[in-house]
Amino acid sequence: MLTKESTGNAYDVAMENFEAAANTMGLDEDTRQMIKCPERVLTVSVPVRMDDGHIHRFEGYRVQHSTARGPAKGGIRFHPQVTLDEVKALATWMTWKCAVVNIPFGGGKGGVTCDPKHMSRGELERMTRRYTSAILPLIGPEQDIPAPDVYTNSQTMAWIMDTYSMTKGYSIAGVVTGKPISLGGSLGRNEATGRGVFYTVECACDHLKMPLKGAAIAVQGFGNAGSVAAQLFHEAGAKIVAVSDSTGSIYNRNGLNIPELIQMKTMCGHVEGFPESEPILPHELIGIDCDILVPAALENMIREDNAGTVKARIVAEAANGPVTPGADRILESKGCFVIPDILCNAGGVTVSYFEWVQDEQHLFWEAQDIYKRLERVMKTSFRDVLKIHMERKTPMRIAANILGIGRVAEAVQIRGIYP
Ligand code: NAD
Known about the structure:
The structure is a single chain. With 419 residues, the chain is of the alpha/beta class. Among the domains are: 37-176, 3-Layer(aba) Sandwich (Rossmann fold), CATH 3.40.50; 192-339, Rossmann fold, CATH 3.40.50. Helices cover 46% and strands 17% of the residues. It has a seven-stranded mixed β-sheet, sandwiched between helices. α7 crosses α13 (347-361) and α7 (192-208) packs across α14 (367-392). The longest helix is centred in the C-terminal third of the chain and has 26 residues, at 367-392. 51% of the residues are buried. It binds nicotinamide-adenine-dinucleotide. Nicotinamide-adenine-dinucleotide binds next to α8 and β7.
C-alpha cells in the first residue's frame, strides 16, 4: 500500500488544480480569496466502547468547503488513511462538481480515520452514531447533507438519519442521501455513480469516434462505482479485461464475466481467484493494454512514476483525484483523453440531489425517470465541459474546473460579503 508521503497530498493537488483553472479563466484575486478555502472545518473526537470493553478514540472530520450555491453536499469516508487534508480536498472537489452538473448544492465532505474492515457491526454503529452527534451542529437538510463514500453505505446513512432524527424529535429523511429505499432513499442512487461514469464514457467515445462495443476496459477498484460501471460496460458489449480491489488484481484478455465476478465479490469480498482469470500485480493494471482505463479506487493512483505506462486512449476518473497533476501532464502529452472526476463521477451527487428533492416533496419517482434525468444531466454537463475544452484548447480537467469555479464565482460575486 502506498503511503501519503509517497503519493502526495490531496489538498495540494486540489489547490494546484484550482490555481491552474483560475489562471486560465483570469479569475481576479478577490474572488479567489472568497472561494478557494473551506468555509468551515470541524475536527471531532469520537470515543467508542469496543466489543472487548475498552474505549477507543477515533478522530473524525466534517468540512464545508462552500455553501454559496446551496447546502454543503458530500460523502462520509471511513478509512485508515483519512486525514483532514484529504477531507478538505474532497470537500473542495464536491463544490466544483455540484456546480459542473449545475445542481443547487455547495461542497462538503466528512470522514473518520478507522479500519472498518476490522470492526464489528456493533462497533461501526456506535462509532457512526457518536460521530453524527459530534457533527450534528453542522448537518441538516438545509445546511449540509452527508452521503456514502468509501467504506460507508446505506446502512451507515440509516444510522446517521436515525441519530439526527432522534435528537430533533421527528423523522428527517433529507438529512442524508444514499439511504435505504424504505427510509426515503431514491431508486437508482446505488448505481448512480457507475451509471454516470458510463454515460460520460459513451460521450467520450462519440467525441473520439471510438466504438464502445468491443473496447477493452480495465477497472481499478471493484466497489460501488467500479463494479456498476463495469456491469454497464459489459452490457454495452465492451470487454472488461482487468479488475482490481484492495486485495488483488485479475486479468483475462478475452474479457471477464462481470455478472459472475460481482456475485463472487459480494459473497467472498475479493476478486482474486476468480475462475478464467490470471492474477496480475496491482501496479500492472494501470499499464495494461486497453482502450479505456477506469480508476475507481482512491486518490493518487496514477502518478508521475506510472503515468508513462498508461496505454488507454480514455481515462475515466470514477474515483476522486486518482491522477496527480504531474501524471496529468504526462497523460496529456500522450494524447490521452481524461474525463475528470468532477464530471465523470458526478452521477452519484446528481441522484443524491434527486433523492433530496423527493424527500422534501414526499413524492417518489420511478427508476426510469431517474435514469432519464441522470442521463440528461450527465450528457449536458459533458457537452458543456467539452465546449470549453475545444474553444479554449485546454485539458478537460481545466475545462471542468473553469465551468464549476465560474459558476461558484458568479454566486459569491452576486451575493457579496456579509456583513
Ligand atoms: P467502495 O468502498 O464501494 O469501493 C472502493 C473499492 O476500491 C473497493 O473494492 C476496494 O477494495 C478498492 N480499493 C481500495 N484500495 C485499492 C487499491 N489500492 N487498489 C485497487 N483497489 C483498491 O467505494 P466507492 O463508493 O466505489 O468509491 C470509490 C471511489 O469513487 C472513491 O474515490 C470515491 O470518492 C469515488 N466516488 C464514489 C461515489 C459513490 O457514490 N459511491 C461518488 C463519487 C465518487
